[in-house]
Amino acid sequence: MNEKVLLLLLGCVTGLVTSLPLSEPLQNLIPGMKEYATMSEGSEVPQVIFTKIIQANKDIDTPMHGGDIRIRTGRSATNCTSCLWPKFEDGTVPVPYSINVDFSPSELKTIMNAMDEFETLTCVRFVPHTTEEDYLNITATDGCSSFIGKQGKSQAVSLADGCIYKGVVQHELDHALGFYHEHTRSDRDKYVDIKFQYISKEHWSNFIKQDTKNLGLEYDYESVMHYDRYDFTNTPNHATIVPKPDPNVSIGQRVGLSILDVAKINKLYECSVCATLLSKQTGILTSENYPSDYADNVDCVWLIRTPNGQASLTFRDFNVQSTLDCTSDYMRIYDGNSKNSPVLLDKMCGSKTIPPLIASTNEMLVDNFQVEYSRFCTSDYLKLFIDGKQKGPFCGYTSIPVLYSTSNSMILSFHSDWANQAKGFQVSYTFRE
Predict the structure, then answer these.
(1) Do 142 and 108 share a structural domain?
(2) pTM reported for the whole predicted model
């Protein structure tokens, strides 16, 4: 899997791309988003995430349901009725974790990167365990595996050899948040056919429907929780899962959380966040209500992620309340998938010409803005973070040049205060090899 560029927009920005239309329920969850992108696949198609899990677990003797769901003695994996992690007064859902494995620095980076994406797009926060009674104990004892939801006390999430991929880590963490495999949804028969004739009887239990809460959201063929069409087949070239009505629909996720995965987490945990995941090679992003004035006191996030290449971001229009040092409304751009990533362009506000931006990888984070003018951009402003360097703040009527990042991610950060509003901004992004 070659992830090289991700663009995440944080702030008062709306993402517009040109692919398949979203259903009405999802449009309501993601304000201002009209269309969403699908993953583009190159000539070398990486493995679906769950196929990696099957390979890692092939010699594991621990009893599991669904191939990677751990089962407590005397307790079914299907009867977790109160397994949500508690929500704090600040609206976040902290999930404590401890790591009891001597992972390499690169493996730890992969795990942290997977956790960061939850924090960027949802209200879930994976936090180091201190004195909490309930927490995740990340081990490497039983392949790739996890319990469903909060079980109480120390509960294992195993990430052994063959499991340290961003998507695999997110798959197991999503189990720990309370999610089953997508193909076992209670309404799955409307969307897929299970070909039991090509599945050995000892694996039939992996395809049994569960009594799931579907949250009013459509079936997600691209979920990080979805099997590949050939998983557990006993007959070469014969699929075990066939989408319908179109059997050629691509199923299974190859990178990480899908758009609907994010929507489901936010709905299950009632997250009050404005977060959008985009995955098309090219597209246009605008602030909310553009070209009309953006709203007050809004923080939104856009994450643009592709399987390969680098992200290039070009601003076509930028007009944000200008204040001293851009302290009111502003935008930032990060070279990565979280606000912990290097700064590509720091606080921008007013009306400036912003240079094109290119991320160093396939991830870029944009904290969006449209800003009123102030002398030092202190009210509404935009910042970009590129390769650890801050660009901006920008506000007022500013011309911002094209910006490039050396990695696969970039963040734009936008801040808007309660006072004056402006038209906002329009920016185009693209990815280059």
Answers:
(1) yes
(2) 0.76
